[in-house]
Amino acid sequence: EERQETKPFRQRLLVVANRLPVSAVRKGEDAWSLEMSAGGLVSALLGVKEFEAKWIGWAGVNVPDEIGQKALTKALAEKRCIPVFLDEEIVHQYYNGYCNNILWPLFHYLGLPQEDRLATTRSFQSQFEAYEKANQMFADVVNRHYEEGDVVWCHDYHLMFLPKCLKTHNKKMKVGWFLHTPFPSSEIHRTLPSRSELLHSVLAADLVGFHTYDYARHFVSACTRILGLEGTPYGVEYQGKLTRVAAFPIGIDSERFIRALDLPPVQDHIKELQERFKGRKVMLGVDRLDMIKGIPQKILAFEKFLEENAYWRDKVVLLQIAVPTRTDVPEYQKLTSQVHEIVGRINGRFGTLTAVPIHHLDRSLDFHALCALYAVTDVALVTSLRDGMNLVSYEFVACQEKKKGVLILSEFAGAAQSLGAGAILVNPWNITEVAAAIARALNMPSAEREKRHKHNFNHVISHTAQEWAGTFVSELNDTVIEAQLRTRQ
Ligand code: ADQ
């Protein structure tokens, strides 16, 4: 009985990410409407019951006036969110510039955007300064809200400078940092002018996490080769302590997808789609429209497949759903027109009066429509040129218990390490190989499909987002305790 009276201890967790998990629309001088966006990170942390999580991040809108800022802060508080206000110039230099134009392509092995390479090189220093400044602004908000005993979990390449800012202010704060993208080989990382500053700052954290063991190894070798530090199997010796470095592969809330398949609106969508594509095999691509996702390469491979397999031309359809992102970056605008051009050409070439081989949609789908699409798909094509993990491959597998469709997966997605045994792995740069994989997938005997699906399905349901978050945070706790013991000895 006594036990029931004691409230379970729930540790406070401050989750710091560039974007808050809400979209905010201004409705008046002091009125805002907010909508929670159900990203992977949100559902991962909702599932971790032992933590009381608060979010700190940018709300994605420019709010120059104090009345607007106060009203937004108040509205966000109800959603357990705390805003960081960034003005337009900072967003331009830090977010569009340093984060998305420099770090993002570099971490995905794509180098600087070719056309304005020199201009980027010239603006590098000012963008890096904006990056440091923005990270310090995030740190100021964390410091204002931090209470002793809180755990601070920083996310992604936007906030590599944050661990150092936080630790400089308060050495005792427990700080973890997780990278959602790949970490490149040290040979690539060393081309970055601010290579050392970023490494030093990340090393200030107590725990540094990556999706795969390879990324963790790349990070450790960057620290040994560029900074001359000592690497161990557990991490990096840094300023008299061990900064723990490890792999924490993310997952999805698989239950949410599996449950959704039984809902009437999803069932209705499924029936509609089955009717619409009757007599044809459905192939699916779902990506943010980003150069790392290899969308043009995927469509060219599909063209090659149609070229070589006349039999399949009127028996297969490729649905490519590509939600536009970062639309004010010129490189992304160019990608959109490139994809449109290729799709138009192929549909002109292989289409008939009644059917086209590729349906390309430039938008995001709601959750129910997405689940239905995953469920009716025969072959999913995930052909990222490089991808931290890739959750679309997980979501597809979760929705395929009935159909047992085939996953064609890039060997350069982190997911290749977890779903590789069940998927057909391809080099997305080799369109001949991808075209052959499409033929193999469409012709695969059902016994083999079942076996492969089972392997992947078991992985997806047993390595969930909730487990990922829980493991990271408990390891972060342990790491700090360990460090304290070491200093006491
Ligand atoms: P992303 O690059 O965004 O994430 P991914 O992991 O595939 O890539 O997640 C995308 C999410 O957006 C999925 O949940 C998917 O359902 C959704 N989505 C994409 N296109 C959509 C569309 N058209 N309509 C509706 N929903 C759509 C980054 C890294 C990844 C890493 C994750 C998590 O780049 O490698 O797996 O973070 O760490």
From TrEMBL:
Name of this chain's protein: alpha,alpha-trehalose-phosphate synthase (UDP-forming)
Transmembrane segments: none
Full-protein residues shown: 66 to 554 of 915
UniProtKB keywords: Glycosyltransferase, Transferase
EC number per UniProt: 2.4.1.15
Transferase in keyword set: yes
MF (Gene Ontology): alpha,alpha-trehalose-phosphate synthase (UDP-forming) activity; trehalose-phosphatase activity
Keyword Glycosyltransferase belongs to the record: yes
Alphabetical GO biological process terms: trehalose biosynthetic process
Similarity section: In the C-terminal section; belongs to the trehalose phosphatase family. In the N-terminal section; belongs to the glycosyltransferase 20 family.
GO cellular component: cytosol
Class of this enzyme: transferase
